[in-house]
């Protein structure tokens, strides 16, 4: 009689799944800006209960809107491993041309709104052409555009603010209980998300940022894509400038000064890498809101504006350091 052999063979080992704590840690690592925003809000609520009042939260959203809209356009640029130092000046130029078209040329208000957007896109496209076809470094090309745009703004305005049209002023007002700047920010964010995650253009941006030469060899029209990217950044900057002008009911010659740095900071804080290939619309939104929360909280705590700049600089440095750490961990 043949003995039946009993098998001690164990089922094939299943791959070890990370524990709940490990998954939570990985999520926190990938969403560091959001975690920081939540912790900061809790800390500010403890320090000053006025922080979480509805009026203050709405004010934070309005304050974040201009930088966020500008930063969504900057996200496209940084994803492709570029940089755009001109967005603050382009925002001012778009708003100024729009206001001049209305107050001096007498064009209809709705038309002047589209003119401001067109000026922004045109300025961005010129920067893109200089970079893609003129082979200028993005830093130099956009620095030159920043100077040109700021100079043209001063020439057109003669150094004085110009009233905006009703269509532009609407961008700074409210529709019922809903502030239009926040609505514009949400629409711009959805558009940024859609382009990056649902279009061939968005996938091409990531490919160029990951390895431009490989993208070119794979058949992507890299030069045309880069021109489109900078034109989109200019378009978003033009919208941001008119939202800012709408809040003030006038276009100022010095509007948008320093906003390009806040836009870059929002994108980097949101998890994008300055070396390209990564970046999300949601992360950029969180980064812009985080900057607004910091400024709002420090104002509530009566902290000097000088020290606020120090804090913002430290936050940017920490964000870049966190990104370096996250990439090393991923390897």
TrEMBL record:
<keyword id="KW-1003">Cell membrane</keyword>
<keyword id="KW-0997">Cell inner membrane</keyword>
<keyword id="KW-0472">Membrane</keyword>
<feature type="transmembrane region" description="Helical">
    <location>
        <begin position="225"/>
        <end position="245"/>
    </location>
</feature>
<dbReference type="GO" id="GO:0005886">
    <property type="term" value="C:plasma membrane"/>
</dbReference>
<protein>
    <submittedName>
        <fullName>ABC transporter permease</fullName>
    </submittedName>
</protein>
<dbReference type="Pfam" id="PF02653">
    <property type="entry name" value="BPD_transp_2"/>
</dbReference>
<dbReference type="InterPro" id="IPR001851">
    <property type="entry name" value="ABC_transp_permease"/>
</dbReference>
<dbReference type="GO" id="GO:0022857">
    <property type="term" value="F:transmembrane transporter activity"/>
</dbReference>
<feature type="transmembrane region" description="Helical">
    <location>
        <begin position="306"/>
        <end position="325"/>
    </location>
</feature>
<feature type="transmembrane region" description="Helical">
    <location>
        <begin position="109"/>
        <end position="129"/>
    </location>
</feature>
<keyword id="KW-1133">Transmembrane helix</keyword>
<keyword id="KW-0813">Transport</keyword>
<feature type="transmembrane region" description="Helical">
    <location>
        <begin position="85"/>
        <end position="103"/>
    </location>
</feature>
<feature type="transmembrane region" description="Helical">
    <location>
        <begin position="27"/>
        <end position="48"/>
    </location>
</feature>
<keyword id="KW-0812">Transmembrane</keyword>
<feature type="transmembrane region" description="Helical">
    <location>
        <begin position="136"/>
        <end position="156"/>
    </location>
</feature>
<feature type="transmembrane region" description="Helical">
    <location>
        <begin position="176"/>
        <end position="196"/>
    </location>
</feature>
<feature type="transmembrane region" description="Helical">
    <location>
        <begin position="60"/>
        <end position="78"/>
    </location>
</feature>
């Amino acid at each position: 009689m043949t003995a039946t052999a009993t098998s001690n063979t164990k089922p094939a080992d299943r791959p070890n799944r990370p524990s709940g704590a490990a998954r939570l840690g990985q999520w926190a690592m990938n969403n560091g800006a959001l975690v920081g925003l939540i912790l900061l809000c809790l800390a500010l609520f403890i320090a000053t209960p006025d922080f979480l009042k509805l009026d203050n939260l709405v004010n934070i959203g309005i304050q974040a809107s201009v930088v966020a809209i500008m930063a969504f356009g900057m996200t496209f640029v940084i994803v492709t491993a570029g940089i755009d130092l001109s967005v603050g000046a382009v925002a001012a130029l778009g708003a100024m041309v729009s206001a001049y078209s209305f107050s001096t040329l007498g064009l209809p208000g709705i038309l002047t709104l589209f003119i401001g957007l067109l000026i922004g896109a045109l300025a961005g496209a010129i920067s893109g052409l200089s970079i893609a076809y003129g082979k200028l470094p993005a830093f130099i090309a956009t620095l030159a555009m920043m100077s040109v745009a700021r100079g043209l703004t001063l020439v057109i305005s003669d150094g004085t603010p110009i009233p905006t049209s009703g269509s532009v002023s609407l961008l700074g007002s409210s529709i019922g209980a809903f502030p239009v700047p926040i609505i514009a920010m949400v629409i711009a964010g959805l558009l940024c998300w859609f382009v990056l995650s649902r279009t061939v253009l968005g996938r091409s941006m990531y490919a160029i940022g990951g390895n431009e030469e490989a993208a070119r060899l794979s058949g992507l029209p890299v030069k045309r894509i880069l021109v489109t990217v900078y034109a989109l950044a200019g378009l978003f900057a033009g919208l941001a400038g008119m939202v800012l002008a709408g809040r003030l009911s006038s276009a100022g010659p010095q509007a948008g000064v320093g906003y390009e740095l806040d836009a870059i900071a929002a994108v980097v804080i949101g998890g994008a890498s300055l070396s390209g290939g990564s970046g999300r619309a949601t992360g950029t939104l969180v980064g812009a809101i985080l900057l607004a929360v910091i400024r709002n909280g420090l104002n509530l705590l009566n902290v000097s504006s000088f020290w606020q700049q120090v804090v913002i600089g430290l936050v940017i440095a920490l964000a870049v350091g966190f990104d370096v750490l996250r990439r090393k961990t991923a390897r």
